[in-house]
Amino acid sequence: SSVFWLSSLRLVAEALSAEASTFALLVSKMGNCPCFAGLVAEEVPEVMGASGKLTKESSVLFYGDDGLWTPGTVLKTWSDGQVAVWVAPDQEVKVPAKNVFLLQRAGDYFFLQPDGSPGYGKLTSSELPFLPGTYGTLIRGLQVVLVSVPASVIALRQDGKVEVQYEDGVYDSCTVDDVMPYSLYLQQEQQGSGGMGDMVTGLLQGMVMDEAVDEAMEAF
Question: Which of 25, 29, 96, 125 has the greatest CB tally within 10 Å of its CB?
Answer without folding.
Answer: 96
